[in-house]
């Protein structure tokens, strides 16, 4: 008998995820190319020089980065207008943390993924993971970082964008900090992004989850074992699944 | 959503993300290896912010002047353009500039105007001039014009109109010096600073007051030719700072100093006896005359140690003939300023530096000719100028503004009720402003042609907007630059005229043609230039090509085999003409009076970043000199309880003003100083109105007894701290 | 040999006429109250008699330093030292006006242009030089106190002066040594008025956090590699339960 599927994401969710991913990656690549200072150069000093030569100079790179940044912000503003309920749902889920359960899950999952169940048994810990809801703690942690980081990145980005368009000299203190916080936020989210990409797209365990970012649905079995608390909620609601 | 859909969607997003801004923002071309040349048009002209007329090249883009650059071929300026020259753009594009003919609506000085069309304005100006002529004769109309290439047309108009009353600003400035040197040497000399080895700079501030070829040559002389510069000035000016020696001479005692120099030079036989015997007249009288003027006597008067005075005399003589007492320009200081400058000229005479390198030079041939005309004769007219015969040796063509003003106020010997003013500002340049206001109030009709609403325009009836120098076509003018050149310049428009402005020539022509005098203006400026250059026909083409024409005339030895234009046909150390006229043939020193206790002598001076009121509203220069302050000695300030920056009231016998004090060691304790050109009455000079103090309101209207030149260092003032 | 454009200045010739300041303001459309160049007066006690012989006025502007602290303060490389010409350049199209470089100059040569809202300073008038003219200040100076050119070129005016006066060239010292390329012949006037270069705290934070951020990213990357390694070598599929269900 084919497994029941449950709907996790609708079309706007899917769109905004991939929209965000595409913009973020382009912004990261162009943004790092905009930093050119031997004390910082995140991808090394050759990278900004090379990228600038490809697009015809640092000023062009800035225009591209600002353009994509504006599109990125506009995209989210539109999403909020079009699917405010979905956004609210998403935010409610990622910030719904049960500290004891979720921290335990987080700690155990990290060990399991790197060192395996034997490592946990060796220290006498129960290798079973606590049940998780719509999102597991790993997903929640990265989503929180992405949202908070994203807001910081967007806000500081807008400040920098407006810097030579509306701000006077008295605002340079704020603008200077916008540069720094933008850099730090991007760096931290990027660190999380590396794990997210592995977990979502490379780890075979999460394959059904990855597929759901295209199809919008997950198989019941996967839902039951990976997001039990959510599965228990939705399987009782009629019409949620489909054969 | 299928994987295919995903890729399609991502592709669209990526394309949009990159393509969008590229289309919207426009990707700038990759930075060129070298910056693009500016898209300028370069045009010659000649600066107008001071009298020097330095050649310049205007860079014009889309009909707007972007920069004024030096003309490297212009030797008289040594290829430079000073701060004011650069600021000419701010003058031309001053938003407060006069734009349309204006007719006074309210009371004089109220500042209420109505705009009228040019035809109506010219009709009115002509009509009023005719009325004045009918009621008061032609001499009942006064004409006052500043230093400008169009000023000759004002003189022409005045003459054909029949008025003898033409004044300039020169009697508020340099006529005493000109008089003294003219009467000693037979002509007014130029200083060959570049080749001099020892220069006494007394009552002149050549590095700071102005940037003329002398300013530049002085630096070259000092730096590269081993020239020594000694400055006497009650203020530690920039010239003082850059001199080898400086002494804060007591104001008004220069004559004692000069006569003491002469005393030492004569008594120690430091002059060239052959030259003095052959070329000068009056050495015996001079010798007897200077005996009492010992260095010790001068030391007491001037506040300079006697040994230094004697030493300077010896050094000056040792460097002769390549040494000089610098003649200076502005000599409007004391009531005996002509005699003071006579003492300067006499020392120069003893040095034998006439017509020699490093000394005083005669005017060089320039080659321009006047354009003659036959002025009509008016039976009904006065005998002479209104200021005639009131001072013994007034320059006829300059007159004396102060004597004229007094005469107008007293209707003595006849009334003047009409006044035409071009490009000068008696309200802002003449001492005792209250009297100028009185004079203006006496007028039936005043017409002013200017580019700004100066205080004189502010008090006028009819104000006509002139073109600025970058918009005009000007006749040729000859310039003397001593060793550098004798040259000719002209101006052609660099940009289209702004607003409804018109050149003075067109205005005079317009008024003249309405008075049956049109025949005297029946030519174009181009035709006029041809007449002016009829003996140097190549000049016009050269000026178009280089921006200047040089006449390679002799520099030294002009006087070889020539007589001096004096009664004795020699350099008159002893002036026979003065003797004949009952004036002192040799200068007699009278110690200056005062200042009384608790008062200060006010001295005036200049700064190369402003030109009195004509730059009062210049936005760029305003950044350098935003206002004037009262220089007050540190000790004196302490005694009065005044701190640097305090607001003070300065009061003289004729007026009072307020401004901030600048407490400094750079001025004598008995002296105060402020720059001129601030605090206009005119609200249409927004950067100056209400800013600083008007020196004209404070200065008393004494004048030099011989020429009628204003005496601007003889006003005593009180200074009190203003409690807010 | 690479060029090094610089000014060789004889401060003793300066008469403080402000011609250079005026010319620069006009040529470069410098906004009101802001200046790309300056003339510093020497503080001299006022005494009658012989002069103490020091230079009284010191013309100056951006010194196009060998070790520019302003460049080090810029996050984007919008300001940089052009190694071919030795000129410290501001790429106006790239500068975002963050203001970091302004306090970083010990000579206060930079300002945030009130109109463009970007960093601005003397750039040796490249457009004028492209038209064959000297920088505006040099062109206009009455006494030619400012001489500009490539000091590495023995034929240029600046090169000649530089070599001839090698023994007695002075630079204005600052509390931070940026190795300025502005040379004064003999007495420079005020000789040590430069302050310390100040880098804004936000830029210091950015520089100091950079290694940490890179470290965190590296740690994350290592973790991913460990997980990948486990996936590849310890068998595919899950080797642990995702829930408490048996």
What is the arithmetic mean of pLDDT of chain A?
91
Largest interface chains and counts: A-C, 60 and 56 residues
| Oligomeric category | heterotrimer
CATH topology of the domain at 190-361 in chain B: Dimethylsulfoxide Reductase, domain 2
What is the distance, rounded to the nearest whole angstrom, between the alpha carbons of the first and last residues of chain B?
A: 79 Å
- Our estimate of the beta-strand percent of chain B is 15-25%
> How many individual β-strands of chain B?
29
Element order of chain A: H for helix, E for strand: EHHHHHHHHHEHHE
Helix content of chain B: 25-40%
Q: Biggest sheet of chain B: strands side by side, in what order?
A: 5-4-17-16-15-6-7
CATH A-level architecture of the domain at 190-361 in chain B: 3-Layer(aba) Sandwich
Number of domains of chain A: 1
Can you tag this structure with a few keywords?
heterotrimer, A: 243 residues, mainly alpha, Fumarate Reductase Cytochrome B subunit, three-stranded antiparallel beta sheet, 11 helices, 3 strands, 73% helix, 3% strand, B: 724 residues, alpha/beta, Dimethylsulfoxide Reductase, domain 2, Barwin-like endoglucanases, seven-stranded mixed beta sheet, six-stranded mixed beta barrel, 25 helices, globular
Characterise the protein shown here:
The complex is a heterotrimer of chains A (243), B (724) and C (246). Chain A contains eleven helices and three strands; from the N terminus they run βαααααααααβααβ. Chain A has 243 residues and is mostly helical. Chain A has a single domain (5-94, 131-235), classed as Fumarate Reductase Cytochrome B subunit, CATH 1.20.950.20. In chain A, strands 2-1-3 form a three-stranded antiparallel β-sheet. The N and C termini of chain A lie close together (9 Å). The mean pLDDT of chain A is 91. Among the domains of chain B are: 190-361, Dimethylsulfoxide Reductase, domain 2 (3-Layer(aba) Sandwich); 600-721, Barwin-like endoglucanases (Beta Barrel), CATH 2.40.40.20. Chain B has a seven-stranded mixed β-sheet with strand order 5-4-17-16-15-6-7. Chain B has a six-stranded mixed β-barrel with strand order 22-26-23-25-24-29. In chain B, helix 18 (455-458) links the parallel strand 16 and strand 17. In chain B, helix 5 (151-161) runs parallel beside helix 19 (504-513) and helix 6 packs across helix 14. The longest helix of chain B is centred in the first third of the chain and has 24 residues, at 3-26. The radius of gyration of chain B is 28 Å and the shape is globular. Chain C is α+β, with helices and mostly antiparallel strands. Chain C has two domains: 5-185, Alpha-Beta Plaits; 200-236. Chain C is built from six helices and eleven strands. Chain C has helices spanning 19-27, 69-72, 126-130, 136-140, 157-164, 201-233, and strands spanning 5-9, 37-41, 49-50, 57-61, 79-82, 87-90, 111-112, 119-120, 146-150, 169-170, 182-185. A four-stranded mixed β-sheet of chain C has the order 9-1-11-10, with helices on one face. Chain C has a two-stranded antiparallel ribbon with strand order 2-4. Chain C has a two-stranded antiparallel sheet with strand order 5-6. Chain C is elongated, with a radius of gyration of 26 Å. The model of chain C has no long low-confidence stretch (mean pLDDT 94). Chains in contact: A-B, A-C, B-C. At the A-C interface, helix 3, helix 5, helix 7, helix 8 and helix 10 of A face helix 6 of C. Strand 11 (245-247) of chain B pairs antiparallel with strand 3 of chain C, so a sheet runs across the interface.
């Amino acid at each position: 008998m084919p497994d029941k599927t449950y709907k996790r994401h609708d079309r706007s969710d899917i769109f905004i995820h991939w929209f965000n991913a595409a913009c973020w990656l382009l912004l990261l690549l162009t943004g790092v190319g905009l930093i050119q200072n031997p004390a910082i150069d995140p991808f090394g000093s050759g990278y900004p020089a090379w990228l600038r030569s490809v697009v015809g100079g640092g000023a062009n790179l800035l225009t591209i980065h600002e353009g994509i940044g504006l599109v990125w912000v506009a995209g989210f503003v539109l999403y909020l207008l079009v699917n405010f309920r979905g956004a609210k749902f998403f935010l409610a889920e990622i910030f719904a943390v049960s500290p004891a359960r979720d921290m335990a899950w987080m700690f155990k999952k990290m060990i399991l993924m790197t060192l395996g169940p034997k490592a946990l048994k060796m220290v006498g810990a129960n290798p079973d993971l606590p049940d998780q809801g719509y999102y597991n703690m790993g997903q929640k942690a990265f989503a929180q970082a992405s949202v908070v980081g994203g807001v910081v990145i967007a806000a500081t980005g807008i400040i920098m964008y407006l810097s030579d368009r509306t701000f006077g000299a008295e605002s340079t203190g704020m603008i200077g900090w916008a540069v720094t916080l933008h850099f730090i936020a991007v760096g931290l989210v990027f660190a999380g992004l590396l794990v997210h990409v592995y977990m979502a797209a490379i780890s075979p365990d999460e394959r059904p989850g990855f597929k759901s970012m295209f199809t919008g649905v997950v198989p019941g079995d996967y839902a039951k074992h990976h997001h039990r608390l959510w599965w228990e909620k939705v399987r009782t609601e009629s019409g949620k699944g489909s054969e | 959503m299928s994987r295919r859909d995903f890729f399609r969607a991502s592709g669209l997003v990526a394309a949009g993300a990159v393509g969008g801004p590229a289309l919207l923002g426009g990707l700038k071309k990759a930075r060129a290896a070298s910056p693009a040349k500016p898209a300028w048009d370069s045009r010659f002209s000649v600066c107008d912010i001071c009298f020097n007329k330095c050649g310049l090249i205007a860079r014009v883009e889309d009909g707007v002047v972007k920069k004024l650059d030096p003309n490297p071929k212009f030797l008289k300026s040594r290829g430079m353009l000073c701060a004011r020259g650069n600021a000419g753009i701010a003058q031309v594009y001053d938003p407060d500039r006069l734009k349309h003919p204006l007719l006074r609506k309210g009371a004089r000085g109220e500042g209420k105007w109505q705009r009228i069309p040019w035809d109506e304005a010219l009709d009115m100006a002509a009509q009023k001039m005719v009325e004045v002529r009918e009621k008061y004769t032609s001499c009942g109309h006064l004409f006052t014009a500043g230093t400008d290439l169009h000023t000759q047309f004002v003189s022409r108009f005045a003459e054909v109109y029949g008025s003898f009353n033409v004044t300039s600003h020169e009697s508020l400035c340099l006529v005493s010096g000109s008089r003294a040197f003219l009467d000693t040497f037979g002509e007014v000399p130029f200083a060959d600073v570049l080749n001099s080895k020892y220069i006494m700079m007394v009552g002149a501030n050549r590095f700071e007051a102005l940037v003329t070829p002398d300013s530049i040559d002085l630096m070259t002389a000092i730096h590269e030719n081993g020239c020594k510069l000694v400055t006497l000035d009650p203020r530690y000016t920039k010239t003082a700072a850059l001199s080898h020696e400086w002494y804060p001479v007591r104001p008004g005692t220069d004559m004692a100093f000069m006569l003491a120099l002469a005393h030492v030079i004569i008594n120690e036989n430091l002059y060239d006896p052959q030259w003095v015997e052959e070329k000068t007249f009056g050495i015996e009288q001079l010798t007897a005359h200077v005996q009492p003027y010992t260095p010790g006597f001068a030391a007491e008067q001037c506040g300079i140690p006697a040994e230094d005075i004697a030493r300077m005399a010896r050094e000056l003589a040792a460097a002769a003939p390549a040494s000089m007492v610098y003649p200076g320009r502005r000599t409007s200081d004391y009531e005996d300023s002509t005699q003071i400058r006579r003492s300067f000229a006499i020392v120069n005479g003893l040095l034998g530096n006439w017509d020699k390198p490093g000394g005083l030079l005669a005017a060089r041939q320039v080659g321009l000719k006047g354009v003659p005309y036959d002025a009509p004769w008016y039976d009904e007219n006065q005998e002479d100028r209104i200021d005639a015969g009131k001072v013994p040796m007034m320059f006829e063509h300059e007159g004396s503004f102060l004597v004229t003003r007094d005469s107008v106020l007293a209707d003595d010997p006849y009334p003047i009720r009409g006044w035409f003013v071009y490009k000068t500002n008696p309200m802002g340049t003449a001492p005792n402003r209250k009297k100028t206001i009185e004079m203006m109030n006496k007028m039936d009709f005043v017409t002013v042609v200017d580019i700004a609403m100066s205080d004189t325009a502010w008090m006028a009836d009819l104000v006509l907007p002139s073109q600025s120098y970058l918009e005009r076509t000007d006749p040729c003018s000859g310039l003397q630059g001593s060793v550098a050149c004798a040259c000719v310049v002209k101006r052609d428009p660099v940009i289209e005229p702004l607003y409804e402005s018109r050149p003075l020539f067109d205005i005079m022509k317009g008024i003249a043609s309405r008075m049956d005098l049109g025949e005297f203006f029946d030519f174009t400026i181009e035709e006029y230039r041809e007449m002016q250059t009829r003996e140097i026909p190549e000049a016009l083409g050269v000026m178009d090509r280089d921006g200047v024409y040089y006449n390679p005339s002799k520099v030294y030895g002009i006087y070889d085999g020539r007589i001096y234009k004096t009664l004795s046909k020699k350099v008159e150390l002893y002036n026979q003409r003065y003797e004949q006229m009952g004036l002192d043939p040799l200068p007699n020193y009278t110690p200056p009076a005062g200042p009384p206790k608790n008062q200060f002598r006010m001295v005036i001076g200049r700064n190369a970043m402003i030109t009195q009121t004509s730059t009062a509203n210049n936005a760029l220069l305003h950044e350098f000199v935003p206002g004037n302050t009262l220089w007050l000695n540190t000790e004196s300030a302490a005694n009065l309880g005044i701190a640097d920056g305090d607001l003070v009231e300065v009061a003289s016998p004729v007026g009072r003003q307020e401004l901030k004090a600048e407490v400094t060691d750079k001025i004598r304790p008995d002296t105060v100083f402020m720059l001129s050109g601030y605090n206009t009455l005119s609200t249409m000079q927004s950067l100056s109105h209400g800013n600083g103090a008007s020196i004209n309101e404070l200065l008393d209207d004494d004048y030099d007894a011989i020429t009628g030149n204003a005496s601007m260092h003889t006003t005593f003032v009180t200074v009190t701290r203003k409690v807010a | 040999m690479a060029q090094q454009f610089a000014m060789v200045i004889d401060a003793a010739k300066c008469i403080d006429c402000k011609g250079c300041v005026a010319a620069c303001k006009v040529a470069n459309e410098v906004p009101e109250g802001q200046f790309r160049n300056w003339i510093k007066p020497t503080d001299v006690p006022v005494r009658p008699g012989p002069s103490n012989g020091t230079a009284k006025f010191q013309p100056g502007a951006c010194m196009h330093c060998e070790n520019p602290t302003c460049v080090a303060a810029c996050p984007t490389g919008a300001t940089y030292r052009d190694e071919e010409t030795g000129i410290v350049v501001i790429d106006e199209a790239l500068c975002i006006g963050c203001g970091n470089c302004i306090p970083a100059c010990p000579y206060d040569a930079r300002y945030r242009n009130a109109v463009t809202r970007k960093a601005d300073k003397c750039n040796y008038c490249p457009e004028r030089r492209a038209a064959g003219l000297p920088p505006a200040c040099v062109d206009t100076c009455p006494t030619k106190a400012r001489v500009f050119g490539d000091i590495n070129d023995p034929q240029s005016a600046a090169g000649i002066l530089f070599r001839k006066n090698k023994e007695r060239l002075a630079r204005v010292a600052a509390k931070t040594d940026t190795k300025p390329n502005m040379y004064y012949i003999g007495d420079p006037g005020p000789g040590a008025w430069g302050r310390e270069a100040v880098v804004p705290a936000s830029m210091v934070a950015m520089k100091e956090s950079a290694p940490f951020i890179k470290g965190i990213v590296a740690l994350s990357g290592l973790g991913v590699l460990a997980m990948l390694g486990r996936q590849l070598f310890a068998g595919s599929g899950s080797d642990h339960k995702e829930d408490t269900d048996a």
